[in-house]
Amino acid sequence: MLLIPDFRNYVESIKTAFNQIERHEVVIDDTQLSRFLEAIPDDNKYIVLGILPKHNPVGDVDNIQSIDTASILILKKVTRSDQTHNNFLETFEEAQTITRNVILKMRADYLNEEEFCTVMKFLSIESIDVNPIWGLFGCDGYQIDFQLKTHF
Fold it and tell me: What mean pLDDT is predicted for residues 103-122?
């Protein structure tokens, strides 16, 4: 089971790794998500948000594993009234580059045997699913969904 302190630390490590990302937070649902996103300023900086994972224990009584499904959002607050279509696409180009780099970090952390304590050692690479997000509480960017196969 992916423990919340470990997930929080990983989300913070993403913020630390990328200077375009100024804020980070872990939330549980849309209500919390909206509160954090509506409160951030339109300052051309990104926020990384972790959505607490759901846990699906599988196996038998002697061997329980947890399939944890989590999401990481890379978002930037935008002022839609000031935005041309070209600006809109440029925001997504920039967000896509950051998102790609986050996925490459996840992969590197998965492969890094020296950092054995990272949560990404449990990453199921084939589960990564990336989707653009438009107009989520005034923000645009990408959502990375993924699964971890952890010990229960």
Answer: 86
